[in-house]
Amino acid sequence: MQRIIDSILSYKDVLVFLILLLFSIYLVIDSNHYHQSKLNSISNNFTSTIFEWSSSIENYLNLKNENEKLIQENLDLINRLYSNEEIINDSLLINSSYIFSSAKIINNNFSYSKNYLIIDKGSKDGIHKEMGVATSYGIIGITVDVSENYSRVMSILNLNSKINAKIKNSFHFGSLEWNGEDPNIINLNDVPKIAKIKIGDSIVTGGMSAIFPENLPIGIVSKIDLKIQKIITE
Amino acid sequence: MSNLYIIIAIRFVLLLIFQGLIFNKFDLFGLYDPHISIIFVLIFPIKTNRIFFLISSFFFGLILDYFTNSIGVNAAAFVTIAFLKPYIMNFVFGNFYDPHGVKILKDYIKDSTIYKQVLFVLMIILIHHFIMFSLESFTIDQIKVIFKKTFYTSLLSLIFCSTLIYLLAQNER
Prior knowledge:
The complex is a heterodimer. Chain A is of the alpha+beta class. Chain A folds into three domains: 117 residues, Rod shape-determining protein MreC, domain 1 (Thrombin, subunit H, Beta Barrel), CATH 2.40.10; 25 residues; 71 residues, Rod shape-determining protein MreC, domain 2 (Thrombin, subunit H), CATH 2.40.10.350. Helix content of chain A is 35%, strand content 26%. Chain A is built from six helices and eleven strands. In chain A, a hairpin with a 7-residue loop joins β7 and β8. In chain B, α4 packs antiparallel against α6 and α6 packs across α7. Chains A and B meet through α2, α3 and β2 of A and α3, α4, α6 and α7 of B.
């Protein structure tokens, strides 16, 4: 008996390695099947406070850029307000069942295949799962995991992300999916062949799901591939 | 002896903070970040208990995962390179694998050519990045993207890691 234990102990390094490796792979599989894995919820608050601190430093250094972006955004909104055509077509103003609230992104990443963002609002601010998240430039994702103070957002730059999108001013829909390669290019798949699309057309949200209102900007068509998909720049 | 553990603990915390908050936002071409966190494994003292090395690398990888929302990916990669490090050192530097660690890392660096040093660092980086990107996407169709990301990120990490190691490994007693 002692000899068996001794011979097992002589391989203790390999055993410890295998146990740790299998546990890590279990964690990977667990987080692949469920967006909200248990460890995530525990860690969220701690690492998110670190992110918030670090992003507040970044924000301070970025103030000049932020200001310029806000001025431009204001200008665009004022222009839309005073352009009569836009008011009729823009369902954002007519459709009052969508309420917008603001949040700051405190962590973002595009280098992985499954990218997530963290925003600084959580359940105590009224955020819950499956809410759409967007910037003034376009949609960025859907919340998947909400803790009290922070929320995790599944980016559209995520292999699992499938969002309903359509060509602006038409009724042809497609499915917005990312192929993992370029963070500036995302694919619009399953668009019917009869749809007349040109390079430069705008792609906007379709409004078929309750998550995003219709006509939120997504991107512009940069390449058309008749076999399978059409491609959009972000 | 406890001085060594304090140094390891300092490296643990500092490398996590630098990697998680600064280097993860490097975004070369919008995609590639250098992974200097690998230095933790590369300059970990050889004289310490191997199980301690494995467990601390595991936790290092796990906490790094929290910074990137990728639970388990870095943990698996770090524990693998921690396990394989002695075998790779044996392969590259050609020395008899001595579990009681008479030679310290500085000796290995002093006595070998620059090619061996670069090869050692590169092998560990390649294995880590390949495991990391493969587990992260977890799909076979992405294999071309995985190879491309591994290649470019490894080059980037190699440049940053080599520079930092050259500065840090001098301090090991």
